[in-house]
Structure formats: C-alpha cells, structure tokens
Design goal:
74% of the residues lie in helices and 0% in strands. It is built from 10 helices and no strands. The longest helix is centred in the middle third of the chain and has 28 residues. The N and C termini lie far apart (47 Å).
Length: 264
C-alpha cells in the first residue's frame, strides 16, 4: 500500500502484530476449557469487530478527533454493535461483564486522548480487558448456571496466568522496540519475569493446592515463565524487526494455550 493511500485511510488495521495474540489467546483458552459451543463463533465475531472499533477509536482520540480518523470508527462500530446485541440477546447473562469492559475501554481511550496510549498503565488496562475474555468465553460455553465452582477456580487461575504472560510481554516488547537501550525497562522486564517464575514455582512446590490448581499444571507454568525470563534477558535491546517480535509472541501464546488445554 502506498504512503499516499495510507494517508487517505488511516486507522483501518491495528499497527501491533502481537495484538492479535493478545485478543485470541484468552478467547481460545475459554473455548478450550469449556469444550466449545456454537455461540463462540458469534462471540469471536463480536470481539473481533469490537476490537477493531476500539483500536480505531483509540487512534481517533490520539489524533484529537480529527475527521480523517473517523471513518474506521463508524464502520467497525456499525459492524460491532449488531453482533454484540445479538450476543446479548442470546446470552443475557454475559451482560454481567459489561461494566468491566466499558470501564476499561473508557480508561484506555482517556490514555489515548492524552496521547499516552503507549504508557504502561494503558497496557495494563487493555491487557486486563483482554485477559478477562477468557472468563467470558468460558461462561459462554455453558448454559447459564451450568458451570461449577472448581471449574471457575481453574479459569481464574488460567486468566491470571494469561494476564501475567501478556503484561510481561508488554514489558519485553518495550525493551525490543520503543524503549530499546533503556536499562530501566530491561531490569523491569527481567525482574518481573523472574518474580512470576519464582511465584509459580513456589505454588507448585506447596504440598497441597486449592481446588482448581494442580501441581503438574503450575509446575509447567513455572517452566514456561522461566523460558520467558531467559528470553527477556537474552533478546532485550537486540535490533529485531517488529514483525518478528509479533510472530514470536504468537508462538509463545500457542505454547501457553497448550498448557491451558492440558491443565488437569
């Protein structure tokens, strides 16, 4: 696509390659843990359209609501609205999550409006919203009230693991691209991954775990985060193309999803 064409139609596609993994990993985790249902097709469509609308709205807000950024917002919003409405009509119980997602979206758009969309606080807000999609997809996979307490405990643990991974990714990616060369971010990234690894290992070594947690699964998570720690240390600051970084995140997301699928 030529530079002139990009100037005529900004905001149609997200600029971060790894963002797709951030969206799809939690959804896939909820589908896998609930066994899958036809409603997940509608949920996926609604989330994809909503994500595109949200990303376009963020760029619109960052631009100071300039008119040239407005078209993608209305186009994707017009697509997302009926899909979300259809989802709610089929499963009204999912509305319980609406205040959380609306709050996260408004807070993130505030970051964008203040031109702080790359701030780590904004990353935390968007990652929290994305991670909670695992719980939404899990709930959608059962009839209302059909889930059990132990299953929910496992899903909360899975969601916490997904959030821990994605937030670590935000730190790691900053050391590779926008904050490359800044030792503070390298220490923060490596330190964060080390703490998460140690926490997972400490939980795995406990003689008894609460219902929903399993020694083998948590131990595997500890190994996974140990690998992420080594990666955060070994690759920080290296001149790697953003596309390659994004593809690496997709591969890591697939590995974490495999752990989630085998969580027994």
């Amino acid at each position: 696509m030529s530079a002139a064409k990009r100037r005529r139609s900004p905001g149609w596609m997200p600029r971060q390659h790894g963002a797709w993994a951030m969206l799809l990993l939690p959804l896939a985790a909820g589908v896998v843990r609930s066994g899958g249902d036809r409603i997940h097709v509608l949920l996926l469509a609604a989330c994809l359209a909503g994500y595109l609308a949200f990303q376009a709205a963020g760029r619109w807000a960052t631009s100071g609501f300039r008119s040239r950024y407005r078209a993608p917002v209305f186009a994707y919003g017009s697509l997302a609205a009926p899909l979300i409405l259809a989802l709610v009509l089929v499963r009204a119980d999912l509305l319980v999550w609406a205040p959380v997602f609306i709050g996260c979206a408004l807070l993130s758009l505030l970051f964008s409006w203040r031109r702080r969309d790359r701030h780590l606080g904004n990353d935390a807000v968007t990652i929290l919203a994305a991670s909670l999609l695992a719980l939404v997809a899990y709930q959608a996979g059962y009839d209302p009230g059909g889930t059990i307490e132990v299953g929910w405990r496992t899903m909360w643990a899975v969601t916490a693991a997904i959030f821990a991974y994605l937030f670590g990714t935000a730190l790691y990616v900053k050391t590779m691209i926008r904050e490359r060369g800044r030792s503070g971010y390298v220490w923060a990234s490596v330190g964060y991954h080390t703490v998460v690894t140690a926490l997972a290992a400490a939980i795995a070594l406990r003689p008894a775990l609460p219902p929903g947690l399993h020694h083998r699964a948590v131990a595997t998570l500890a190994v996974f985060f140990a690998v992420m720690t080594v990666r955060a240390w070994a690759l920080a600051g290296r001149p790697i193309r953003p596309l390659a970084v994004g593809l690496g995140e997709i591969a890591s997301s697939v590995a974490l999803l495999a752990i989630v699928a085998l969580w027994r």
